[in-house]
Structures are given as C-alpha cells and as structure tokens.
Design a protein that fits this description.
Structural class: alpha/beta
Number of helices: 13
Radius of gyration: 21 Å
Shape: globular
Strand content: 15-25%
Strand order of the largest sheet: 4-12-11-10-9-5-6
Largest sheet: 7 strands, mixed
Bound molecules: pyridoxal-5'-phosphate
Order of helices and strands: EEHEHHEHEHEEEHEHEHEEHHHEEHEEEH
Helix content: 25-40%
Distance between the termini: 18 Å
Number of strands: 17
Length: 413
C-alpha cells in the first residue's frame, strides 16, 4: 500500500532531526512543532517495529510520535556529555521539581519523604498488588481498563474482581450498585485509573469522593493511577488527585504518576509512587527489595526537566492534541458510519471506538489489513469484536491518513 500525499518523503525528517528543534531562548516566544513527521521506522520504537516492512500506521501502544520537549532533550544531552553513568539517585532539585509540580498544577502539597521512585508505573501496580494482603485476596477494578490493572493482581496470586463501568448518556460512570455487590470480605485494594484509559474520563471531585468513601467503607487501599493527569483536554474539567480529597483519604491512597505519557519519555522509565502513610510506604518499599531496579540516570534527568521546565511545551501539546481529538470526532461522525466514539474524550490521547455495528469478528485485523494498527478493545476487557482503541498522539497528517484508510477499510467491511 502506498503512502498518500501527506506522506511525501519530503515531509519526513530523519530521526536525528529533533536535535535541531526550532526553539527561541525567550520562553514567551517558544514555538513547538508537532507537525513534522519524525521517521521512527528505523528506531527502537516498539510501536513502529510491530509493523516493520509493512505500510501500516501504528496507532496502538500509548506513546506519541513527537520528540520530547526541547528542555528534556537538552538536559539529556548535558547528562550524556558528562560521560559517566554510574549508579544514580534522585537529587534534591529533582525532588523539588516533583513537589513544586504537584503544588503548582494541582494544589497538592506533598512531602519529599512520601516519594518512592520506580522504573515504571506498571511496576507500581504489581508492587501494590503484592505488598498488601495475602495470596487469594482480591483486588477490585472497573473495566474496560488498561490491561495491567487486571494482570497485576493475577501476577501476584490475587483474584481480580472486574466491575464494568456503566454507560449513562454519553458518559461512562462507576456502577455503585454493582460495586457494592461485587466487593468481598477478602477484597484489599481498589485499582482506579484517573483520568481513565481507555474511556478518557476525567472523574469529578464528587465521583472521586464516592470512590474514596466506598474504599473507606470496605477498608480498601486505593491505588490511584494518575499517569494521564497532565493530559486533560477539557480545560473546564480539572484533575483532582485522589489523595488531595482529604487527609484520611490520603492515608489510604497510593498515587502512581510519571512524566512518561505527557512528556513522551516512557522509554526512559521514571515513575513515582506517592504514599503519605509511613507504614504503608514501608510495606510497599519492602516489596521492592532486591527486585525493583533503580531508575536510570536518564530517567531522573528527564523527569526533572519535564516537571520543571516544560509547561509551555505541555500547553502547546494539549492544544495540538485537542485539535487531533476534534478532528477524529468530526471525521468519525461524518465519514465512518457504524463507528461510534463512546464518550467525549476529556483526557488522554486515546480514543475508545465502538465498532460493534460493523459486525467484524476481528476488527483489529481488518484495519491492519487496510494499513492501520489499533489496540484491541478485548485486551481492556471489552466484549471481543466490539471496541478498538486509537492513539492520536501523532501528527495531524498521520492521523488524517489513518482515518482515510479506516474509511477505505469500512467500504470493504
Ligand atoms: C493507565 C496507565 N498506567 C500505566 C501505564 C504504563 O506505565 P509505565 O510505562 O510507566 O509502566 C500506562 C501506559 O499506557 C497507562 O495508560
């Protein structure tokens, strides 16, 4: 299959091109380029390697096709130039960057001692699953949801109780009656994804208060994965850290966050668990002993620069992603009959598409055959054949071409 006009090689820059990113030194004059296509096909990208040698646009795994913010790239260059890559540790300026970020973005005052550094957020989910309770205990979560929410409990010998989110109008919401029915005396933890991957919800303060009250009532530790919190597309819907709701809620909460999604550095593996309660923190840390590797030198450097120096870049990114989101909404409504965007996509760069009406036994395979690689909704707990997830963290040209191919795929469904 040939690339369309949008994929003319003249528009494709070499992977090294981002080193010359156009950035002025005065922050107020910074401009950022999300339109230039950086060729990742020859790189170590898992996203692009999946379809190596095929003309398939990968819109599956959740990383973006954009270069990391210039300030992150510059900080990494400085670190590389140092030339010595011994065992690292988080230094006070990094901790300060995290503390200041949480305060300035969310009004959340955290103590440096609450931070536990991790090489990945999935590591944090698995650690939490194993650190509390015993084998045979249960962990509750709401589906559809990012697959490690359901695999981590199993990895740790825990039962996973899945309660479907309820569709109410154009929204997914928690199904309180079903949750009350599903919780058991052996349930120890609640895995919350806030904002939500894949349905794109930004939960309101009232909803989060209900989650917290439910956990308190059933004596559950609340594990709140907030990796997408800096990717809110609806300015009117602020992210509320679960642990900010009240000190007694914070005491039961393990917050997981990372700069990896927003600043597009997931390959550098720097994530955080924020655990205010000292006893729970100690248990969690004990579970890491001898197993969980230290964050690498570059992860720390990228995290510090991302949280301290990249707000103008993040704002520009959000504007671009909003444009992509609106583009998809419009295209799907006009050009893809039988495909439905389930919810408003309030956050993330992930669109959850209902394709059930197409009547395809294997929608992902069908779209792959027409040059678009999506994630299978069944991996997130949806009924097979009913949903796919589309990653729109890519250039508008890539997105437009992918949607054009999906339209062509529909004609042959
Ligand atoms: C909700 C959620 N948590 C965790 C992760 C992955 O985190 P990490 O790569 O740090 O393990 C993702 C990636 O898509 C995610 O969407």
């Amino acid at each position: 299959m040939q690339h369309s006009q949008a994929f003319s090689p003249r528009r494709v820059k070499n992977i090294r091109a981002f080193q010359g990113f156009a950035v002025s030194t005065a922050p107020q004059q910074m401009t950022f380029d999300f339109d230039t296509i950086i060729d990742r096909t020859g790189s170590d990208s898992r996203k692009w390697r999946k379809y190596a040698g095929q003309d398939t646009l990968p819109l599956w795994i959740a990383d973006m096709d954009f270069a990391a913010p210039p300030a992150v790239v510059a900080a990494l260059h400085r670190r590389v130039d140092h030339g010595v890559f011994g065992y690292g540790m988080p230094l006070p300026p990094l901790t300060r960057a995290v503390v200041d970020y949480c305060a300035s973005h969310y009004g959340w005052k955290i103590e440096p001692s609450w931070l536990v550094w991790l090489p990945g957020l999935v590591t944090g989910l698995n650690l939490a699953a194993g650190a509390f309770g015993e084998k045979g205990d249960a962990i509750l979560t709401c589906t559809p949801v990012y697959p490690p929410f359901t695999s981590a409990p199993k990895n740790m010998g825990r039962e996973v109780i899945k309660v479907p989110l309820a569709r109410r109008g154009s929204h997914y919401e928690f199904d309180w009656a079903a949750l009350e029915q599903a919780v058991t005396p052996r349930t120890r933890l609640f895995f919350l994804c806030s904002p939500h991957n894949p349905v794109g919800r930004v939960f309101t303060r009232a909803e989060l208060e209900q989650v917290a009250a439910f956990c308190e009532r059933h004596n559950l530790i609340l594990v709140s994965d907030e990796i997408h919190c800096d990717l809110i597309l609806e300015a009117a819907l602020p992210h509320v850290p679960t642990a900010l709701l009240a000190p007694e809620i914070a005491a039961h909460t393990i917050t997981l966050m990372a700069p990896s999604k927003t600043y597009n550095v997931p390959g550098l593996g720097a994530s955080l668990a924020i655990i205010p309660d000292a006893t729970r923190r100690m248990r969690f840390v004990r579970a890491t002993a001898g197993i969980v590797a230290e964050v690498n030198n570059f992860g720390y450097v990228a995290c510090e620069a991302a949280y301290r120096d990249c707000e103008p870049w993040r704002q520009a990114l959000l504007a671009y992603l909003r444009g992509n989101r609106d583009f998809i909404l419009d295209f799907v409504a006009r050009e893809l009959p039988g495909v439905r965007i389930e919810a408003p996509i309030e956050a993330t760069y992930l669109a959850w598409l209902d394709v059930e009406k197409l009547g395809l036994a294997e929608p992902v395979k069908h779209f792959e055959q027409h040059g678009v690689g999506l994630s299978d909704g069944a991996m997130f707990g949806a009924k097979p054949g009913t949903h796919v997830r589309l990653n729109f963290g890519c250039t508008r040209a890539t997105l437009a071409e992918a949607l054009r191919r999906m339209k062509a795929a529909l004609a042959r469904a």
